[in-house]
Amino acid sequence: MPGDRLTNEDRQHIAAGLAEGLGFTEIGRRLGRPASTIMREVTRNGGPDDYGAQQAQEATQQRARRHRKAKSPAPPVGDSSHGRDPQAVQNLTESFATLLDQQGMPRMAARTLACLYVTDSGTLTAADLVQRLNVSPASISQTVAFLEQQGLLKRERTPGGRRERYVVDDELWVRSTLAALQMNDSLIAASQRAAEILGAATPAGARFDVAAEFLRLVNAPLRQVMEQWQQSQADRNAGHRS
Question: Per-residue pLDDT tens for 67-77?
């Protein structure tokens, strides 16, 4: 079939056709292949004057082996410090990423955040993430931009260097909760405005009014929790200074 890879027998027919002085179109017609396929095969393997079936077959196999080697996945990278089992750390990272994914976070963002979160330092460079996640630098760049917008990581410059490193800290979920509070506040204000414009007595207006009421109920205990957390942190810091 035209979409199938050329076989050793196909290459022998191509070599024979070239020896007869046939053009790419005629060789392709005899093999049931597009002329462009024959032209690429001959061009990448010495041209019409130097094409050899066996040499072309061996060259194709070598290219395939190099391609498979380049695409082979990187081995798991787990933290072996503190006597940890690297595979257990890798499994933990993957399961935590899956949990974040199930909570609605984009898969690549979940993997990146989990990879950072399980490190003791909470800090990795782009090169570290590329190696650990076996993805392209472009994927890391896009994902880091998303996580930074969500307040889930920070960028820092390495001291005395030009490379950036990406950081998560103990305040990650605090910032995430604050972002959720702020988003809910925006939705409450927008819902109240919509209810006024549409009319609270109308079905559409009532829908926005109910949304605003629910989000106010959600935010009230969240604010209380945040206040309690801030007070506990202040008390802890005061205890460390005394």
Answer: 666 554 444 45
